[in-house]
Design brief:
Radius of gyration: 24 Å
Shape: elongated
Low-confidence stretches: 120-124
Helix content: 10-25%
Distance between the termini: 66 Å
Oligomer: single chain
Number of helices: 2
Strand order of the largest sheet: 2-1-3
Structural class: alpha+beta
């Protein structure tokens, strides 16, 4: 790398009425948005804008400081007619999933998300 690069924690991308699409960075979200709005004097109205996530920052937070995403378990209950708990899962299934996660390296208090799939409605 011959020239210095700056990686801003906040970055937005905008499309302008003159057809340009530009990115703007700042130390705060307000700085990035102000820079974007100032560019509308040169490039015309902002027709669309959104936050940018790059390899370094996600919504202003350095990626290595973000907590891990929870594990997502999808349970297909199509055809299951056994006993269910108060949440509609097969009895004991959430506890079984939590034990399995710990046995495979998850921390005991790590978030586990369980989603039920339902059989699609069929016309008879």
């Amino acid at each position: 790398m011959n020239e210095m690069q700056t990686f801003y924690p906040w970055c937005v991308v905008a499309a302008f009425s003159d057809g340009s699409r530009l990115t703007f960075g700042g130390s705060t979200e307000e700085q990035a948005r102000s820079a974007m709005e100032a560019a509308s004097n040169e490039h015309g109205e902002i027709s669309w804008w959104d936050h940018v996530t790059d390899t370094n920052y996600i919504d202003g937070q350095y990626y290595q400081l973000l907590p891990d995403q929870p594990t997502l378990h999808v349970v297909d209950l199509a055809g299951y007619d056994g006993p269910v708990d108060e949440n509609g899962f097969p009895a004991g299934l959430p506890e079984k999933i939590a034990r399995y996660a710990v046995e495979h390296g998850a921390a005991e208090d790590e978030a586990q998300v369980i989603v039920r799939m339902h059989e699609r409605w069929r016309r008879t």
